[in-house]
Write a structure and sequence with these properties.
Number of domains: 1
CATH class: Alpha Beta
CATH topology: Thiol Ester Dehydrase, Chain A
Number of strands: 5
Structural class: alpha+beta
Largest sheet: 5 strands, antiparallel
Distance between the termini: 6 Å
Number of helices: 3
CATH architecture: Roll
Helix content: 10-25%
CATH superfamily: Hotdog Thioesterase
Length: 137
């Protein structure tokens, strides 16, 4: 499997992302990471709505390990990354980071599974799903 470049997205921290002290609420880091993985899929030509409707497949997070290193605060601009570490069977593992400038705020490993959208049971990731990405193998 060839290596993919680090995919990244920039976000601004808004009031809705913070707690009463103006610090990003811990669960919202997961939302930022989810958005980045979704944009990664979109950049590879994977339309998740069509995937669910036509092929009865969807992705779901099955494991996340997060190191909270530093906090983001109101109005920070953050960079969220998603780097594919492994694709095997029904799962994809990502290394994810959240940065404010050169300062790493979050380090995470996220594993998602490909599921049958009707039964929610694991299904192998179809070999043709990531055509653009795999064409360079």
């Amino acid at each position: 499997m060839r290596s993919t470049p680090n995919f990244s997205c920039k976000y601004r921290v808004y009031w809705e992302d913070t707690d009463a002290g103006g610090v990003v609420y811990y669960a919202n880091y997961l939302k930022f990471m989810e958005r980045c993985r979704t944009e990664w899929l979109r950049s590879l030509g994977v339309d998740q709505v069509r995937l669910r409707a036509q092929r009865h497949l969807q992705f779901a997070v099955v494991n996340v390990v997060v190191d909270f290193l530093r906090s983001a605060v109101l109005d920070d601009e953050i960079l969220v990354t998603a780097e594919l570490q492994r694709m095997s069977g029904a799962t994809i593992t990502f290394k994810q980071t959240i940065l404010r400038g050169d300062v790493q705020l979050i380090g995470a490993s996220t594993r998602v599974a490909c599921l049958d959208s009707g039964t929610l049971k694991p299904r192998p990731i179809p070999k043709d799903l990531f055509v653009e990405w795999r064409n360079g193998e």
